[in-house]
Each structure stands twice: as C-alpha cells, then as structure tokens.
Amino acid sequence: MALTLTYHGDFSRVRIEATGLPGADPSWGDAARIWPTWDALAADNPTWGDLADRFTNGAVLRSTDTGRTWQSVRGADRIALAGGVRCNDFEFTPGVENRYRIVDELGRPLAGAAITPELDAVWLKCPVLPFLNLPVDVLTWGTVTRAARAGVFEVVGRAEPVVVTAPRSSREWTLTLVTDDLRRDPAADAEAQADRIEAALAPGEVMLLHVPAGWPVPGGYVHIGDAVRDLQDGHVQGPRIFELPCRTAAAPAPELPGAQFTWAGAARAWTTWAALAADNGTWADVADRFGVPEDLEPGR
Hints:
This protein is α+β, with helices and mostly antiparallel strands and 300 residues long. It has helices at residues 28-34, 38-44, 48-53, 190-201, 263-269, 273-279, 283-287, and strands at 2-8, 13-19, 57-63, 71-72, 79-80, 85-89, 98-104, 109-115, 122-125, 134-141, 149-153, 162-166, 172-178, 207-210, 220-224, 228-231, 240-248. A 6-stranded antiparallel beta barrel has the order 9-10-13-17-15-14. Strands 3, 4, 5, 7 and 8 form a 5-stranded antiparallel beta sheet that branches. Strand 16 (228-231) and strand 17 form a beta hairpin.
C-alpha cells in the first residue's frame, strides 16, 4: 500500500495517487457503533447490497494544521477505493505541510502522506474549472478597504446619532495584472496571453488567487467584478493589462467538483468511439485529462 504525493506545475496541483489500499470491510464493533439497533441498521441499509456498497467508497482529506482538522479535497469527498485512487488538489496551502489521508466511509484512515508544495508565481485559479488555471504577473494592487455596514440615525433633540452596527464587509481591492512586454521580448505573444486571462475570467466563477507563502499580494477566494483589459500606455507593442476589482468571497461549496475535462473536450479530442477507446482504458482515464478554454465556447 502506498500513497504518493507530487506537485505538478502544469495547472498547479498536488497529485494524489494510492494503490494497494487495505480492505475496507468494517468490523462487527464498527457496525455496532454505527447502528446500535436493528431498526437503525435497516433504516440506513434496505438490503445487504446497500450495506456492502458503503465500504467500496471513501474520501481524500487534507489537513494543514498538523492533523487537528481535516477537510475533503474538492471532488474527492466520495471516491471509489477499488483499483486505487487518483485525484488532484488545486486548493492546497502553499509553503506549509499539507497532510493527506484516505479514509473509508466510516472515517477510518487507510493511507496517509504529507507534502509541502511551493509556488513561485501568483496563480489565478478557477476551482470548479481547474483547466482554466494559469500563472499571472501582478503589476500592482490598490488600497485594500473594508466597507462599513452600519446604520446611522439622527435623533431629534440629540447631538449624537444612534448607530446600529454590523460586521464590516469583506476585503476589497483592485488587482492589476500585466502580460509580457513585446518591446523587451519580441517573441512574446501578449495578445494571446491576454486572451488566456480573459478566458479564465469568462465563466464568472468565484476564483482563487493563489499566492506564494510570504508574498504581500492579497489573495484568497475572490469575486471579480467588471474586468478591464487595456494596452499599457496605449502602445500596441507594450504589454496588456487587466484591472480586476476583487472582493474576498466564500469558497465554492465543497460538494461542487472541479471539472477537469468536459464532454465538449471529449468530442474535440476523439471524433469516433474507436479513437476514444484507443486512448483511454477506462472512464477514469478520460476524467483525468484536462480541457482547454475553447471547450467552454458553444459551437466550437
């Protein structure tokens, strides 16, 4: 049995692979703990088949606080254990030890390992469409504000108003991204780079600004408002810039999986079933591939 963790820089991901997982059949003690009465057993498992199915699946968990708390890796909160496990974690915490654990449906650990992934650039990531992930160059960022959320009521006959308070809103700032400079690097394709950034922003999803440990750039999960794309200093040979108004937001719901590959991508890659079968031994091989931004454009 082995759990292997590796960092891959193509889409900035921790690759999680496990083989030879031990059998997940529960002990009688486990069954007694989960279903202390026959009625509880019957309510949760109408047939013996339902009971057996509970122990063919598990989850991949991550901890960044030395194992005190654990959370499911996106898309791996219910994953088949038979034949091993293959998945990716795009939302790891850089610069600290990330512990991973594979558990069965009873929460019992089957395998574990740790890795300390490092980033050398800021990444703009789409958690629910990770094939849009790309590294970006941050030119600057604006003042970080937290707007007040309070009602101020003037009362006749009083000098001081009555104030009804509420917690301030989340952090807001404007992030400025820049592409390569054509004047310094004639081989750079600033327009294509700008198109790639725009493609990542097009779905309008909550994004993750993944910032290397110790960098001062504000990051985290953000909602990006009206994005502005322009030429720097109006010069066509200069870099393209993006002004992105960001506001810290809640992460996408953990039950939303990250779609690495779409049906449109499959139709683009394999025009016949024979071609599909020749390149992929199982459906898991298809799901493990990565799409391209064009897969999201209707009619392509």
